[in-house]
Specification:
By secondary structure, the chain is of the alpha+beta class. It contains five helices and nine strands, in the order βααβββαβαβαβββ. The strands form two sheets. A seven-stranded mixed β-sheet has the order 1-2-3-4-5-9-6, sandwiched between helices. A two-stranded antiparallel ribbon has the order 7-8.
Length: 151
């Protein structure tokens, strides 16, 4: 089950921090974003936050799945939900990520294609070095995909 969270989004901070490990960066988009959680058997398995960036562009600002449940399709299910739910409202879904061997291939498998990059994003905006999969993140890599409905 996927449902929208409209109040007390910070109760899911432990999941949010899996995808964006600096709380003040999360604070920059959480209030204006729409948050969804994916539950299974009453337990939260994952979350995502999307924001309206104008001009038909929807941005996936945060996507995280509980590490014990990664690799089971929950992240892909959240992306498919967002794509279907916002079909006809937005034309493009965008996500920014680092050059991580963990996340970049995932988004490519989900149908995203590279769009552009922001040089030194992680080194300029975070108060400590960010490492993922043994790689120090420096540039923000933006990927995009067309939003299509499922019927």
């Amino acid at each position: 089950d996927i449902r929208e969270v409209t109040e007390n989004k910070k109760q899911y901070l432990s999941l949010l921090l899996l995808a964006d490990e600096q709380e003040d960066m999360i604070d920059r988009y959480l209030a204006r974003g729409t948050m969804y959680i994916l539950e299974e058997g009453g337990a939260v398995r994952g979350e995502c936050v999307v924001t309206d960036e104008g001009g038909g562009l929807l941005e996936l600002k945060n996507l995280a799945v509980d590490p014990a449940f990664q690799g089971r399709g929950y992240g892909r299910a959240l992306i498919e939900f967002v794509s279907s739910n916002y079909h006809g409202v937005y034309t493009v879904l965008q996500v920014g990520t680092g050059e991580s061997p963990m996340t970049l291939p995932f988004y490519l498998r989900c149908g995203f294609t590279p769009s552009h990059r922001i040089q030194n994003f992680f080194t300029d905006h975070y108060d400590h070095p960010i490492y993922e999969g043994g790689v120090k993140l420096v540039d923000m890599i933006y990927l995009r995909k067309q939003i299509f409905g499922t019927g």
